[in-house]
Amino acid sequence: MRLSQFHLHTTKETPSDAELTSHRLMLRAGMIRKLASGLYTWSPLGLRVLRKVERIVREEMERAGAVEFQIPTIQPKELWESTGRWEKFGPQLLKIKDRKEQVFCYSPTAEEAAADFARQELSSYKQLPVNFFQIQTKFRDEIRPRFGVMRAREFLMKDAYSFHLHDDCLVREYENMKAAYSRIFTRLGLDFRMVQADSGAIGGDASQEFHVIAESGEDALVFSTGSDYAANMEAAIAAAPGERPAASEAQRKVETPTQKTCEAVAALLGLGLERTVKSIAIMSTDGFVLALVRGDHEVNEIKLGKVAGLQGYRMASEAEIATHLGSEPGFLGPLNPAQPIRIVADRDVAALADFVVGANEAGFHIAGVNWGRDLPEPEVADIRNAKEGDRAADGGELKIARGIEVGHVFQLGRQYAQALKATVLDENGKAAVMAMGCYGIGISRIVAAAIEQNHDEAGIIWPAAMAPWQVVVCVINPKQDEAVATAAAELLAQLQAAGLDAALDDRGLRPGQMFADMELIGVPHRVVVSERGLAAGTYEYRSRSASEAESLDRDALLGRLAG
Amino acid sequence: MRLSQFHLHTTKETPSDAELTSHRLMLRAGMIRKLASGLYTWSPLGLRVLRKVERIVREEMERAGAVEFQIPTIQPKELWESTGRWEKFGPQLLKIKDRKEQVFCYSPTAEEAAADFARQELSSYKQLPVNFFQIQTKFRDEIRPRFGVMRAREFLMKDAYSFHLHDDCLVREYENMKAAYSRIFTRLGLDFRMVQADSGAIGGDASQEFHVIAESGEDALVFSTGSDYAANMEAAIAAAPGERPAASEAQRKVETPTQKTCEAVAALLGLGLERTVKSIAIMSTDGFVLALVRGDHEVNEIKLGKVAGLQGYRMASEAEIATHLGSEPGFLGPLNPAQPIRIVADRDVAALADFVVGANEAGFHIAGVNWGRDLPEPEVADIRNAKEGDRAADGGELKIARGIEVGHVFQLGRQYAQALKATVLDENGKAAVMAMGCYGIGISRIVAAAIEQNHDEAGIIWPAAMAPWQVVVCVINPKQDEAVATAAAELLAQLQAAGLDAALDDRGLRPGQMFADMELIGVPHRVVVSERGLAAGTYEYRSRSASEAESLDRDALLGRLAG
């Protein structure tokens, strides 16, 4: 490949709306161009990287036994209604009317269509298990598309759907896919972690996410130093607290005229923040509920929504708070509500003695509160976020890192197949609803995530497998110096013969400009062919990650690059 | 590849709504499944064939110097309005409103978006020429989607857009693309022809189509025996007629009480049909026009619409005919109209003497009519379809065959770039609007077209390059007979080592069922490994196109398949 024949177009300007490093660098490198909000054209350079990711994903899916198919991007409303997801997916679903006023959507994922295909194709348990995958453009109508291809509306995704007669077969394929995903991200050369996840809108029995570790990641990931336990903050669980100490203080009302936060109350009283309790007033379908977490903890909305009866809860209004507690926000607590209320205490709150809560009276808190004495024993649940330094269930310590979700695997169970009546005849000739798994990878997002993880001030630092080219031979003065141009072309042929994805930068740019381009677009290895080098029988070699260039003769160079 | 691990699902039933052979065979072979009207899921088998076509198209586009990029499928209305095509494309354009009520379409082609990308990326003539291509799902909201993937609404297309400073550069790239297309269809193993075409809705200066020859083709193609002249019927031109003979008859009114067609009038008068003239009454934006073609010819609506002033014409109503000609249909003619009218005569009508026309009076025609004597010399144009047996301009004879359009190349000129202000600085530093070419291939349609051209009663007969596998090794009793299974696996490895795309049919089906499947899905070469064959040291080999199987030893088999 000669870069004079390849359309490369880097720019110096940083667009003002590009907040994220990967977005800025992809624009500067000329990998993508914006067509409209959340819609990007992939330039030849960008597409070259995207295709490398796509190829590795395809190879590993096939190695894992999955077979590729392709579902239309445009799918009928009726299909989505059969599982209730037409409504459930909400405004992210791009809805479309055709010329005959039939209603469709642009597929954001394809559980329904895959189950529909399986229903037509699979009739006997002998055809199972089978795992169908596709690599396809998807669309999600994000309310605030931003960060370039990290959260684009139109994006490239690998989605796979497996079908099984028995649950244990689903579990085996789930493990098989987890292993395949680990191979994929390992081959891509990314620092990644698999974490336990909440199944969210897709639903199902178990799910795990794959994250690329990066400081700019949207997700907080929780790890234990004591084992390989790792979970998304949404799902992460700290060790259960120790036994509750005995009560040692009397209950007392304290004046807190302007202290509306736990921090302020703790400071006023000279207490540790972990002795205070935050009261969160919410409305469930059954009525008013007060959720309690320690002052130094944060409520986890996903966990709270999983407590029996609290699915789909919302925050209570000030009027609702006044009605049920007789107080204004800032002084809320479980004692002396205006009406009987349901209380849900976090495990760590239930383990407290001598704690502080709001008095349900403006300007006052109550200290020295104890369960069993001042309040009945509460309903207990884990409703808080794990926290850096928490003890883990395995005895280790919890650490937090940030990640970018690039893959997600689900054990869906039978909900989709049931809704779509996707059955096969089992060993006894009876119709049995199939168990399903689904497995996604955000291919275009991986490109951005890799950049978030691997860059410096000069630009992108691609892992070898994702680089547009592994090595670029830069030619100084190709038009003026025929000997140099010939030597460079020969070297290119030798590198390609050695199995390297190599290109020749014969664009005739000034060396500084050429080198800056190669650093910006993240080429792992750069070789310079110059008149002076030829005279000395050497090439100037520089690794993208090294600070200095070296002079190497041809054998040394080939040895270095092949190694 | 082992077929027991690949999802293959053939069926015997022929769906009632599948009219076309390729549609029926693709459904029976299990290559596609219908999701909704005009929307098909590609099964693993179908996708395997589709990807083979895609790969060849990509390789040849790259060999021809084009670079791949990717434009979003969802494109903003404003972009399409800038060239007037939002309206012009009509209801085929699938229109979409997003959650913010912004209006988009699903790209049916991408001239605007490509020109928009070029506007952002290209600033200097030094970056030219460049040819960007993509292989991508497109959508056209066909009013009557049918024939399976032959005319699906969602389909896979290769579209390319080239940019040039000068017209001669565009012409060179156009020729380069024509050569690339010929290589593509040659490699695919298809009987194809390149024909001159009308540019239609895309517009531009010159265009040619590539057709797969097949009896079921929707398009009539016209060839000359005298040269390589070939054209779509829309654009085909016969040789100009010879000189007009001298008038030899007097004009006379003849009674034709029930003779409303040229055929009936010719029969009544005992004249050749070529002496009669058909009058077609149309309304242009400037008013009533009478178009004349010989009784044995058919008017060509595309050619007629290209006559000055007739763009966008429509057929005249009976009332309009009565007003302008004073007659009812069946007896129309250019003589004695009720009002002065414009007359456009086909070249062959202008070359007639002593001809017959309607009298503009119910029940009468006029014979012995002559130009210059009975009528002023007419406005002349080629407005008829070419006809089998016509003389060609090159002196040969015109022949007609039917074809399926699978590719189309256009010299667009500057209309799109002008509308989108896609300019570069030229050699003199002045802004110059770029010239554009565009080049399409219907990748999914090629699959159906290949089947239309290559099939028999047993099923599909794939050309080697498109076959899901070149050779399948069929194992008799793989589960009962370990020696046979082992020998088959060894043979598979040898075939693969010889570079063949080979698979093993280890599904354990009965031989007849297995062979019928292989014939239906069109595998070019079938090898049977059986206990009896092993004992004799032979394999049963059958080519898909041969009527009989042969017994071959291993060397002979490998020699045959490698050859």
Ordered list of secondary-structure elements with their pairings:
The structure is a homodimer of 563-residue chains.
Chain A lengths: L20 H8 L3 E5 L2 E4 L1 H20 L3 E2 L5 E3 H5 L3 H4 L5 E4 L5 E4 L4 H11 L8 E10 L14 E11 L2 H21 L4 E5 L9 E8 L5 E6 L5 E3 L19 E4 L6 H8 L7 E8 L2 E8 L6 H6 L7 E2 L2 H8 L16 E5 H4 L4 E4 L5 E6 L9 E3 L16 E16 L1 H5 L3 E3 L5 E3 L1 E8 H11 L1 E2 L2 E2 L10 E5 L6 H16 L4 E4 L5 H10 L4 E5 L1 H6 L2 E5 L6 E3 L1 H9 L1
Parallel strand pairs in A: 3-7, 15-17, 17-20, 27-28, 27-29
Antiparallel strand pairs in A: 1-2, 4-6, 5-6, 7-8, 8-24, 9-10, 10-21, 11-12, 11-21, 13-19, 14-15, 14-16, 18-19, 21-24, 22-23, 25-26, 29-30, 30-31
Helix pairs in contact in A: 1-12, 2-6, 2-12
Keywords (chains A, B): Aminoacyl-tRNA synthetase, ATP-binding, Cytoplasm, Ligase, Nucleotide-binding, Protein biosynthesis
Catalytic activity (chains A, B): tRNA(Pro) + L-proline + ATP = L-prolyl-tRNA(Pro) + AMP + diphosphate
GO molecular function (chains A, B): proline-tRNA ligase activity
